[in-house]
């Protein structure tokens, strides 16, 4: 009897335990279900949908090379999978665990209508399994990572079967083009096409390139002008490569790679937080944030728009926001600066930023995005204090962002290094805006808002 493999954010053939297990039992029917119908199922953002299109196309090609193919269906997961099981006579459904609250709900619903077998494989250790001395999950990253790291190395990656047995007949599949995942007009994806190759082969290539550089990661990772990080985040998000494979490749390369592995640990940590606080993406963990009077109304809306478009008058923030719009990715140091600027200098609710990133990042990940936004805001279970306010201009100098700014804010390209981080009004080119808020004014406004929280709490 055939076995269904229900694919979600695990679009790979290598080190994919659900596929390996299913293939050992019978003909495999791989299916991807696009669920835009279930309430509370967070609809994927625009950049993610672009990525998904290409990742599915790539997976289908890889499956066809092995005598199989990918079935595409739209609708509620439990209904689609129940129908498919009936049509094919499949006895079991195999899938990897996912931790977004809507995926956990879907797993429950599917479990009621099919014989669902869930496997681990998208994280270094199964989320929920790293516990403190009293048997409880960690809320703070550092002890979590210490404990997780003691359990490393992760499993050795599983190889993909050479060929898949095909079912007697292939069931109907939607045409990928009919899902309209790609932008129509205007086509904003040109910069993304240039930068990325979605799919397992693109992920493998990125890893290969990074392994050469891994020893320099620690020294380079905070410098946005240099390509000093792995660029693996969208591949990891869509599960085109497993973190275990990355862990082994990087650890085997030698050198001081602990900092990099610790970043993979942040990714695991985020899913663990979601298990404790499923609504982390939409709700501040610290209660006193309910007293924070975020700015709203016309002025705040205009400022939000200026931030989104990269027109704040702060070159480092603008460079980051334009890099994001153009490529679907932003350097981590700049994400921190841009997030802090929105939350503190503009005093705009972190959830507005979370939403914008959700829509524009190719690596938009419910857990990682929420953990990092709540860290920046100070509202999270592990977070810096709200009153720690990053100074964007000195960050820009400290991390040597001049070349990065020249690339992404071409209006400023002719300014010398001494001027580019904070162009004075006399040298500011026409068309580049004045600062939408002075650093000192923004800082004082944020501190006053925090005073109000303290007085109310
Ligand atoms: P590398 O530095 O090469 O790191 C390797 C991998 O470790 C990454 O691919 C990623 O999977 C993981 N990782 C690294 N840093 C973090 C981190 N701080 N938190 C969680 N995982 C991490 N990352 C996402 O994957 N999705 C998001 O939606 C996301 N939103 C963010 C929002 C804000 C406000 C901030 C400050 C950070 C966010 N990050 C997010 C984390 C981080 O910026 C990206 O993972 C990183 O920039 C991706 O580039 P890279 O693959 O070259 O990273």
Question: How does this structure look, described?
Answer:
- GO terms for molecular function: deoxyribodipyrimidine photo-lyase activity.
- This is Cryptochrome/photolyase family protein.
- It comes from Novosphingobium clariflavum.
- This protein is mostly helical.
- The protein has three domains: 1-122, Rossmann fold (3-Layer(aba) Sandwich), CATH 3.40.50; 123-154 and 198-276, Serine Threonine Protein Phosphatase 5, Tetratricopeptide repeat; 287-456, DNA Cyclobutane Dipyrimidine Photolyase, subunit A, domain 3 (Orthogonal Bundle), CATH 1.10.579.
- Helix content is 48%, strand content 6%.
- It is built from 20 helices and five strands.
- It has helices at residues 17-23, 46-65, 77-88, 101-113, 141-150, 190-195, 200-213, 217-220, 233-237, 243-253, 258-276, 298-309, 315-327, 332-345, 350-360, 366-377, 392-398, 402-408, 417-420, 439-456, and strands at 3-7, 28-34, 71-74, 92-96, 115-119.
- It has a five-stranded parallel beta sheet, sandwiched between helices.
- Strand 1 (3-7), helix 1 (17-23) and strand 2 form a beta-alpha-beta unit.
- The longest helix is centred in the N-terminal third of the chain and has 20 residues, at 46-65.
- The protein is globular.
- 44% of the residues are buried.
- Flavin-adenine dinucleotide (FAD) binds next to helix 9, helix 11, helix 14 and helix 16.
- Flavin-adenine dinucleotide binds at residues 221, 229-233, 236-237, 263-264, 266-267, 270, 332, 335-336, 339, 357, 361, 363-365, 368-369, 371-373, 376.
């Amino acid at each position: 009897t055939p076995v269904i493999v229900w694919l979600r954010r695990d679009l790979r053939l290598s080190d994919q335990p659900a596929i390996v297990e299913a293939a050992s039992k019978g003909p495999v029917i791989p299916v991807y279900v696009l669920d835009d119908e279930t309430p509370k199922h967070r609809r994927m953002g625009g950049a993610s949908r672009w990525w998904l299109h290409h990742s599915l196309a790539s997976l289908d090609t890889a499956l066809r090379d092995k005598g199989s193919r990918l079935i595409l269906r739209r609708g509620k997961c439990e209904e689609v999978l129940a129908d498919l099981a009936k049509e094919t006579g499949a006895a079991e459904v195999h899938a990897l665990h996912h931790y977004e609250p809507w995926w956990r709900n879907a797993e429950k619903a599917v479990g009621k209508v099919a014989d669902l077998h869930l496997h681990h494989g998208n994280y270094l250790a199964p989320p929920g399994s790293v516990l403190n001395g009293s048997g409880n999950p960690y809320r703070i990253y550092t002890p979590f990572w210490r404990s997780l790291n003691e359990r490393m190395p992760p499993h050795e990656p599983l190889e993909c079967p050479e060929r898949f047995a095909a079912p007697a007949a292939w069931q109907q599949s939607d045409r990928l083009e009919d899902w309209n995942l790609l932008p129509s007009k205007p086509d904003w994806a040109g910069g993304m096409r240039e930068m990325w190759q979605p799919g397992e082969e693109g992920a493998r290539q990125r890893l290969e390139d990074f392994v050469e550089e891994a020893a320099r990661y620690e020294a380079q990772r905070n410098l946005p002008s240099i390509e000093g990080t792995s660029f693996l985040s969208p591949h990891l998000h869509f599960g085109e490569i497993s973190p275990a494979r990355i862990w082994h490749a990087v650890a085997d390369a030698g050198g001081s790679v602990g900092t990099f592995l610790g970043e993979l640990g942040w990714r695991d940590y985020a899913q663990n937080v979601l298990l404790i606080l499923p609504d982390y993406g939409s709700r501040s963990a610290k209660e006193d944030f309910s007293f924070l009077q975020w700015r709203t109304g016309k002025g705040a809306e205009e400022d939000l728009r200026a931030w989104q478009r990269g027109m704040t008058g702060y070159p480092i923030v603008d460079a980051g926001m334009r890099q994001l719009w153009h490529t679907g990715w932003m350097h981590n140091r700049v994400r921190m600066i841009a997030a802090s600027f929105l939350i503190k200098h503009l005093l705009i609710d972190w959830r507005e930023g979370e939403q914008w990133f959700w829509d524009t990042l190719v690596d938009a990940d419910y857990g990682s995005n929420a953990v990092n936004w709540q860290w920046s805001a100070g509202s999270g279970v592990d977070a810096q204090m709200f009153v720690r306010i990053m100074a964007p201009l000195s960050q820009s100098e400290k991390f040597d962002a001049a070349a990065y700014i020249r690339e992404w804010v071409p209006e400023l390209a002719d300014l010398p290094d001494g001027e580019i981080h904070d162009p004075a009004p006399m040298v500011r080119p026409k068309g580049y805006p004045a600062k939408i808020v002075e650093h000192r004014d923004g800082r004082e406004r944020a501190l006053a808002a925090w005073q109000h929280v303290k007085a109310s709490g």
